[in-house]
Design the sequence.
């Protein structure tokens, strides 16, 4: 397995394209949202790798080793020795079609020797929980599924995913990795503190939350945000919800707000907030966010050999909290991995990863790592 990175910034590529094109090559490209209309740049990339599988999306910040940058494209080129790669796409006409899109991805990639699937999705008009549900239902439980939702800075307006080397909206794309040689491990941790009372979800529809404890969700949420409510929905990134199925449940998933509806006083999240579940507000703890990133690296480090690629996907909300300390978390992940590990990734609107030995799920406000290597 050979790995090379290249970057597009200030109107030019950082170096000539590496001569790694092949049917076993995966090209990952994480790009600033402004590149949606720069078809010429992506055509150059596609022309350099005509036989390769190209996958990518827009971001809320690009990760290059420990650096976090904007207004650029970060590209990792991975040529496998024995691992097969296959790309699949599914159109996502609306959030209601998320599960069907996931099912289509699973159908397209299913195979006896499928070992892992890495997914990149539209980041705004999507229900990440239903997308994952469709993928999980169509694949065996031993297939590792990870990935993330595309970003658009803090605007929550338009994201894109690369399909056939071209940036497209309302799209889900994924790559399947095949064969006994590939090794894929994962880790996902947060670092947020819960505060305030836990409240019962009394009215919701999928990922749209209408009421908590019988009160309009947005009204209640604004009471906690105070003057920060004027900055919704982006200010909500600083105060996500921890959601669990019962008071006895020891673990919870974190949900981030994608949009708010003043007319109905409802809130749309990146994933489901089911009726009968319990929700509690969370806020940032700077040091715990960095420790959470470090923990994700420790959790992800498994039995690997040779060159390793770390795909780091962290929530944009973490970046807003950490601000000038953001690179502390990308440094923390690299410090847990073997010297020489190549790390690329992006800041997202949601992270896809299993928890422990479970199936893949949607997470928000986590640092999620996917580690890929090949043993031949």
Sequence:
């Amino acid at each position: 397995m050979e790995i090379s990175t290249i970057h597009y910034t200030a109107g030019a590529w950082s170096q000539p394209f590496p001569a790694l094109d092949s049917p076993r090559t995966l090209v990952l490209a994480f790009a600033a949202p402004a590149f949606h209309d720069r078809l010429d740049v992506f055509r150059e990339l596609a022309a350099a790798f005509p036989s390769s599988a190209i996958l990518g999306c827009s971001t809320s910040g690009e990760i290059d080793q420990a650096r976090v940058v904007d207004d650029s494209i970060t590209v990792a080129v991975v040529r496998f020795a024995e691992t097969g790669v296959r790309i699949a796409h599914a159109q996502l006409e609306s959030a209601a079609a998320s599960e069907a899109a996931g099912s289509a991805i699973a159908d397209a990639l299913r195979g006896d020797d499928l070992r892992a699937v890495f997914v990149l999705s539209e980041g705004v008009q999507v229900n990440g929980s239903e997308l994952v549900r469709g993928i999980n239902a169509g694949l065996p439980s031993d297939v590792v599924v990870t990935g993330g939702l595309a970003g658009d800075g803090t605007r929550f307006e338009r994201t894109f995913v690369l399909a056939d080397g071209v940036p497209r909206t309302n799209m889900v794309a994924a790559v399947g990795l095949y064969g006994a040689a590939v090794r894929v491990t994962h880790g996902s941790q947060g670092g947020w503190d819960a505060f305030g009372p836990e409240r019962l979800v009394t009215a919701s529809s999928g990922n749209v939350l209408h009421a908590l404890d019988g009160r309009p969700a947005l009204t209640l949420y604004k009471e906690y945000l105070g003057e920060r409510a004027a900055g919704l929905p982006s200010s909500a990134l600083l105060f996500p919800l921890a959601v669990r199925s019962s008071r006895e449940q020891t673990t919870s998933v974190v949900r981030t707000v994608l949009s708010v509806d003043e007319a109905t006083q409802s809130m749309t999240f990146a994933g489901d907030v089911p009726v009968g579940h319990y929700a509690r507000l969370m806020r940032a703890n700077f040091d715990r966010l960095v420790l959470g990133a470090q923990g994700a690296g420790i959790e992800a480090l498994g039995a690997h050999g040779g060159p390793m690629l770390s795909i780091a996907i962290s929530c944009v909300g973490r970046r807003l909290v950490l601000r000038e300390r953001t690179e502390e978390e990308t440094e923390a992940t690299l410090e847990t991995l073997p010297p020489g590990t190549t790390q690329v990734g992006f800041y997202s609107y949601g992270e896809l990863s299993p928890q422990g030995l479970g199936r893949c799920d949607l997470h928000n406000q986590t640092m999620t790592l996917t580690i890929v290597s090949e043993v031949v």
User: Anything to note?
Assistant: The longest helix spans residues 286-300. The CA atoms of residues 221 and 229 lie 8 Å apart.
